[in-house]
Amino acid sequence: MPSRHPAHDPGRTLLRGATAAEYADTLHAVVDDLAHRFATTRQPFGGAGRDELQALVDAVDLDGSPVGTADALRESADLYAAHAVWFHHPAYVAHLNCPVALPAVGAEAMLAAVNTSVDTYDQSTVATLMEQRLVAWTAARVGFAAGDGVFTSGGTQSNLQALHLAREHALLAPDGARLTGPARRARLGRLRVLATASGHFSVARSALLLGLDDDAVVAVGTDSSGRMCPDALARTVVDVERAGDVVMAVVATAGTTDRGCVDPLEPLAERCDAAGAWLHVDAAYGGGLLVSPRRRHLLDGIERARSVTVDFHKTFFQPVSSSALLVREAADLARTTWHADYLNPAHEQGRPNPDLNLVDRSLQTTRRFDALKLWSTLRAVGADGIGALVDAVCDLAAAVHAELADDPELRLLAPTDLSTVLFRFQPDGVDDARADALVPRVRRVLFDSGRALVAKTVVAGRPCLKLTLLNPDATLDDVRAVLDLVRQAAHGLLAGEELLDDAPPCRDVHPRLGRSDASALEGVAR
């Protein structure tokens, strides 16, 4: 009997009516395999080394004979899924990665199969209207009564577009006309972006991409927790203007990457209004507070910003990618518009083009219908349901902070408003230099084992370990287990150092046996 799914028939490759049965069978097989992996995963990473993974990747002959859809996907699962990092596991506490909402995963399969591009209305129809409805919903949550926005690939793109809009606003002549030629170039060299050292690195990179001077990003002073100080902002604005430069934008952060702190948005907005400065709030991390039943007040004043970044693939628990840029004044987005006759002509038959083409307000052309994921999640669990998950991870971080407040070995370094924990292994007797050196080594030991993934960073000049808690299912006991692994790794590494401090007892018997490099003893901690 002939096979229902010919292995090498190129005519059966594309998803269409004639291959609908193969499509269903294919997805069922993939989903069943992944469901089994989710149910049986015992640690966040398998622990395979880079050389081993590189060898597995190199062993695949991409120019070889085709193996058919089923075998190709099984091979891909054994290569990719088997060695992936699993963000749903409670011992994954490293970066701003979250477990994802089930309705969003279902929507992801839907939008991938239909393959809508929301750049023009004639490619997307109702998808354009659904995205715009979600933009309006998010803008209303921010407090932008007549705002607008667009979905983006992530916070980096959202911040870039926000600063692009601010740059174009700053390059207007007093009569509102766009500066051109030498006048534009002269003004461009004087534009300055004010941000703190705790702000996201995309701010500085955006300034570079936007053609600003190398020193265009000016650091604003902070309080002891890394939050932008309103009075320091006022002084910095005065200093910039006295130097003959122009404040293009002030970037406040609602959820700093390391500390998870929220800048005081209300007083910062007052200073920006007084100076006539564009205020952008990067709420990529803290955007979930918009739906938090108990912590929404942390964003008070965000409605006074000119633009806001929100990453739904962080604290809204959406699959990557899903972000949005919101603006308080809809007309600001027009500064992004670029017309092409084949795509989004400005006029049709001598009249303004009546179509709602979202490419008019996006830096991207082809763009996925990522809004469907958030739409489905909101309909499935509601805004309050998402907000409860946000509060859960923040509550967990607060519990961990309380747990470590008097810990004799793990020292807290900074408070948080959201869900991060910054700490070092530094019991009495371990000086700063040794504690500094332990940070990357502990992280590496845990990563190589695959048993727990933590992050590292630098705060106030000192290296530290970082937990980013974005799993609402994780418990305090789960985090305690990770912290115990940190302790075990650190004690093992210290024990290795102590062994190196003593001459090997066999030195006299084997005079050629020298002391090993400390790295050879890191296995003690595994």
TrEMBL record:
Required co-factors: pyridoxal 5'-phosphate
InterPro entries: PyrdxlP-dep_de-COase, PyrdxlP-dep_Trfase, PyrdxlP-dep_Trfase_major
Pfam families attached to this UniProt entry: Pyridoxal_deC
Coiled-coil ranges from the UniProt annotation: none
Record keywords, A-Z: Decarboxylase, Lyase, Pyridoxal phosphate
Family: Belongs to the group II decarboxylase family.
Full protein name: Pyridoxal-dependent decarboxylase
